[in-house]
């Protein structure tokens, strides 16, 4: 699991190239310094290349032994002490672990090298020198890995933000398109035309509620959340228009405590559920449709008796899918939809604005 996550950041070949580059650089620096300082003088080019090859093999092995513990430490600290919180403590702990790992690796590599080809120098001096070199190299590697991870995470975050913004724009377009549905507009204007001739007072009320519906759409379509109170006001306007068309064949009840009215949810969530209920069920005198809206803890429930239209075209479920996506943009909770004892029940989470559970994207 750990290696799969690490290689998600670093494909093995990239990590190999990074460590190989660091190993070559360290060995060139060490061999050159030792030769120029007289600590270990080379006898010629062949001696140089043999020592370089031997050093690279040992350094690369040590680098892998160092890299994976470093990555584990970085991953652990990113969860327990992320940057921005107790930064000084994280730096001290991370440097301490880096040095400790370096000393352990230095001991292992030095004793292995000594067994293969015993050092002519004092072994304790070689151990100290190698420990210092590997400690410096490990601190450098830790910084490189941190920078690499930060770059990758920043790139992923930017890509995710762009993807979410495109997705949110598409969702907003779909919601707006569903609101300016030509069938809804056509039916509403037909109803209004009939009302004008026989009941001017109700016709004026119809126009007022109709304008409320579209004003709400335009005001909230760009907002990530709205209050439940505003959603319920919109619901009354929307159902008023539908009741003018269906009369007493369409009924609804609302039972939501005032304490929940300031909770938030994605705008036009109720419209999606109400339209879904009316669109896919028979609504006539012999089979009236009853919609109940009530709360269950911090959930809003929309329930209707199930009487599906026989000739109804297969539903794409686009409205409900978009609703789930809109919830995913602001909270970890998801709506649920189920059929139970002859009723269709939709349950959507209500978000307490004081709990900071939602985020504006």
TrEMBL record:
Residues 172-249 form the Signal transduction histidine kinase internal region domain. The keyword Transmembrane helix applies. GO terms for molecular function: phosphorelay sensor kinase activity. It comes from Lentimicrobium saccharophilum. It comes from the Bacteria. Keywords: Kinase, Membrane, Transferase, Transmembrane, Transmembrane helix. The keyword S-adenosyl-L-methionine does not apply. The chain crosses the membrane at residues 12-36, 56-77, 89-111, 131-151. This is Histidine kinase. It holds the Pfam family His_kinase. GO terms for cellular component: membrane.
């Amino acid at each position: 699991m750990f290696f799969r996550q690490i290689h998600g950041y670093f494909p093995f070949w990239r990590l190999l190239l990074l460590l190989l580059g660091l190993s070559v650089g360290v060995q060139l620096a060490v061999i050159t310094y030792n030769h120029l300082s007289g600590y270990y003088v080379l006898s010629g080019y062949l001696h140089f290349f043999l020592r370089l090859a031997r050093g690279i093999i040992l350094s690369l092995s040590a680098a892998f032994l160092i890299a994976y513990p470093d990555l584990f430490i970085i991953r652990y600290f990113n969860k327990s002490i992320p940057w921005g919180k107790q930064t000084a403590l994280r730096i001290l702990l991370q440097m301490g672990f880096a040095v400790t790992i370096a000393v352990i690796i230095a001991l292992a590599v030095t004793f292995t090298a000594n067994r293969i080809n015993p050092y002519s120098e004092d072994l304790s001096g070689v151990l100290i020198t190698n420990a210092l070199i590997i400690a410096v190299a490990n601190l450098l590697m830790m910084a490189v890995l941190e920078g690499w991870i930060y770059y990758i995470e920043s790139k992923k975050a930017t890509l995710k933000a762009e993807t979410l913004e495109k997705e949110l724009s598409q969702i907003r377009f779909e919601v707006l398109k569903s609101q300016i549905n030509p069938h809804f507009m056509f039916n509403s204007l037909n109803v209004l035309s009939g009302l004008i001739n026989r009941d001017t007072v109700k016709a004026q009320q119809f126009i007022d509620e109709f304008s409320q519906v579209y004003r709400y759409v335009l005001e909230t379509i760009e907002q990530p959340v709205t209050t439940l109170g505003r959603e319920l006001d919109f619901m009354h306007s929307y159902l008023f228009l539908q009741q003018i068309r269906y009369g007493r064949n369409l009924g609804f009840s609302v039972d939501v405590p005032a304490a929940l009215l300031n909770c938030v949810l994605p705008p036009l969530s109720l419209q999606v559920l109400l339209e879904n209920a009316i669109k896919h069920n028979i609504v006539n005198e012999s089979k009236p449709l009853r919609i109940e809206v009530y709360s269950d803890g911090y959930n809003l429930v929309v329930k209707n008796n199930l009487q599906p239209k026989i000739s109804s075209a297969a539903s794409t479920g686009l409205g409900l899918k978009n609703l789930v996506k809109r919830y995913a943009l602001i909270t970890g909770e998801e709506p649920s939809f189920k059929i139970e004892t002859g009723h269709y029940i939709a349950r959507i989470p209500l978000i307490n604005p004081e709990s900071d559970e939602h985020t504006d994207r």
